Amino acid sequence: MLLTISTTHEPATDLGFLLHKHPDRVRTVSFPFGVAHVFFPEATAERCTAALLVEVDPIGLVRRKGRSAEGFSLAGYVNDRPYAASSFLSVVLGKVFGTAMTGRSPDRPELAGEALPFVVQLPTVPCRGGESVVRELFGPLGYAVDATPTPLDERFPEWGDSRYLAVTLTGEVRLADLLAHLYVLLPVLDDEKHYWVGDDEADKLLAKGETWLAVHPARDLITRRYLKHRRALAAGVLAQLAEDDPVEPGAADEQLDQEEAAVEKPLGLNQQRLAAVTHAVVDAGASRVLDLGCGEGRLVRQLLQVPTVTQVTGVDVSARVLERAESHLHLDRLSERQAERVALLHGGLTYRDARFDGFDAACLVEVIEHLDEPRLGALEQVVFAHARPGTVVVTTPNVEHNVRFEGLPADHLRHRDHRFEWTRAQFATWADRVAAAHGYTVRFAPIGTDDPEVGPPTQMAVFAR
């Protein structure tokens, strides 16, 4: 069975550093079921490809089972294990690329946290459910999917297609995330595992899916198949995923939100932010608006008061926060006409989602600072490269202004869940780069009193495509 991972990020040979494998050498690792080889069929500054070839020994597998397998000897010798990507390949990925899967690269630490262009090719993938399942699993994670069925016999096309697909995945993603996606989803496609599934497999699923599984639209399917349909294990994992609030915008604890509000309350900053963002949306002429990281729906409620806004969709990664938003918006009391103007979606902001397409404007109000900086590249791709609304409004704290807040200790951020707070120069550098990369212009505006020394408490960027 074969897997190749290619990149055109220059210098492309940095892929060797990220995978902890030298492009000029062949690495061979032995497993109980066979051997795996890692090699680089191409390694230039413009393009680099790492290949993982796994040679499964089906006869050795049968012999190791001993007498217990005698009744199934034919199935043991005649199967697809030597050539079809399956849980064997997943096991090999976990061992051969285990260090890369942690996201660490001492030689290229900045690249390890960056979304890079990758093309993954799997020539023979067994998939229960066919092409649509491949798209259902990998599409929401930001990949363009090409899945071509293999005919049962090319000489007899009337026989139709087999259950095997040639799969190509293309996307910009952190290498560690790419490997985690493959590790989890390969056995899910096959819907079969060659080894016993116990409690440790549930732990592996939660660990490898920590940043993405909870908000994946197919998380139930993934969980059931990965755990080989063991109902008790799957129920436990799904319950934990439902309870967990992944570290993304909107998932912050209500008490923490109150702490930040207490810091900013003397300025009435929250209302000023909502008013400024609403004005930017109206000024852009947007009628369909997407509020990413909507929290409890304050901006959604404000936009519903604007007659020219015909549709407002709020998105948040936290199911509990969305429940509070539904309550605060009194959705159950709205007239039918008003109810048609609003929708709340459960979803992550760092994975491509077709539901984000087709909006005139997208708003990220005090959202980006809740993400780890290496994840901003994924957010950028989701919003600016794929959803591509005509207008994007982003607000974030100005860290320079923090010295003006009484009661906020020096060197402290306004919110314990903030991963960073930027200066005006840092925000401008990021926004200018994003705009240039995706065909937008950007203008900046202060929110709150623009202090002559330290600037405004909140800074806003308005991107126009």
Throw out a few tags for this protein.
alpha/beta; c-terminal autoproteolytic domain of nucleoporin nup98; Rossmann fold; 2 domains; seven-stranded antiparallel sheet; seven-stranded mixed sheet; 18 helices; about 35% helix; globular
Structure description:
With 465 residues, this protein is α/β, with parallel strands linked by helices. The chain has two domains: 2-195, 2-Layer Sandwich (c-terminal autoproteolytic domain of nucleoporin nup98), CATH 3.30.1610.20; 254-464, Vaccinia Virus protein VP39 (Rossmann fold). 35% of the residues lie in helices and 22% in strands. The chain contains 18 helices and 14 strands. It has helices spanning 14-19, 58-65, 73-77, 87-96, 98-101, 109-112, 131-138, 175-190, 199-208, 219-226, 231-243, 254-264, 269-283, 298-303, 319-328, 336-339, 376-387, 424-438, and strands at 2-7, 27-31, 34-43, 48-56, 116-126, 144-151, 161-173, 288-292, 311-316, 342-346, 361-365, 391-397, 441-447, 458-464. The chain has a seven-stranded antiparallel β-sheet with strand order 2-3-4-1-5-7-6. The chain has a seven-stranded mixed β-sheet with strand order 10-9-8-11-12-14-13, with helices on both faces. 42% of the residues are buried. The model is unreliable at 67-71, 245-256 and 262-267 (pLDDT under 50).
